[in-house]
Amino acid sequence: MHNLTGTAIRAITRYGYVPFMLLGLNGTAIALTVAGTPKFWLLAVLAVAIATSFLAERVIPYDRSWNHDRADSARDRVHAAVNEALILTSVTAIPLLAGIIPAPEIWPSSWPFIAQVSAAILVADLGITLVHRASHHVGMLWRLHAVHHSITRMYGLNGLMKHPLHQSVEMTAGVAPLILIGLPVDVASVLALAVAIQLLLQHSNADYRIGPAKHLLALNEGHRFHHLKWAGVGDVNFGLFTLLWDHLMHTHAYDPARRFDSTQLGIAAKPHFPSGYLQQMRYPFTADGRCDSASAATPSSPAVNTTH
């Protein structure tokens, strides 16, 4: 009986985790916002998302060793706190920016709220994807982005393990076009939560299943290919929310036979990338932190299968 119960829990988690996060928690955020609930309740939804992420990683781990601290958990919590604070600050700054920057009244306010959020996600996804791709080819951007690629295990919290300057550039690219056309604060608030939930799912150590949707949604099955450590091999699957833009840019990759472990993650050209938070903040601006781009880094490895 105990084994049957454990099997059932694993099956429910494997197939129910993603719908619960994407539809259940984002849907809850939309419902709370439409109902006029104070926005601090969205933080409660975020807390549930984080707790669910950690629970799923222990029920159905992809790699059990990735659940264990490598003297990086405290650092990742600092990264997550700083970068989530930046996201929330950008949301609260929208009314101020709207007063400074004249914006045409072309935001589709008459649409159902869920449609407004969906449109915001698609536009933000395009901007973030383009900057993400550029970050693998433009020297200074790669220096900042390399902080994120230095990870050697993938779990939910390291989705926000980023240099704050790079996080700011990505979010500006995703949100600025929306602000310029009159993005409402309510939509921005739900978008900010959706970003956090997506990062938890995208870097999750949970061995969940989403079927053919793995070729469209930017979740962990595809994102692991992005973290392969060799020169140019990780220049795939740049999308945050979807892989739509990757299909259009011919940067989508997937190989069902590939199995990932820590020996394949990180940055091959910089195996001794600093692991401390303050060192990572300084490293991109030091001589040792110089690297023209991810594609130019050495050594290299055979590419994964790419689909168009």
Note down, in words, how this protein is organized.
The protein is mainly α. The protein has one domain (2-285). It is 54% helix and 0% strand. It is built from 11 helices and no strands. The protein has helices at residues 2-34, 40-59, 73-92, 94-100, 113-134, 139-149, 164-180, 185-202, 220-226, 244-249, 277-282. Helix 1 packs antiparallel against helix 2, helix 2 packs parallel to helix 8 (185-202) and helix 3 runs antiparallel to helix 8. The N and C termini lie far apart (46 Å).
In short:
The protein is mainly alpha-helical and 308 residues long. The chain has 11 helices and no strands.
Secondary structure: helix percent: 40-55%
Radius of gyration (Å): 19 Å
> Low-confidence parts, pLDDT < 50 over ≥5 residues?
none
Biggest beta sheet attributes: none
Mean pLDDT: 91
Helix count, per DSSP? 11
Number of domains: 1
Total E-strand runs: 0
Strand content: under 5%
Shape: globular
User: Which class of secondary structure composition applies to the elements?
Assistant: mainly alpha
Secondary-structure topology with pairs:
Blueprint: H1 2-34, H2 40-59, H3 73-92, H4 94-100, H5 113-134, H6 139-149, H7 164-180, H8 185-202, H9 220-226, H10 244-249, H11 277-282
Key features of this structure:
308 residues, mainly alpha, 11 helices, 54% helix, globular
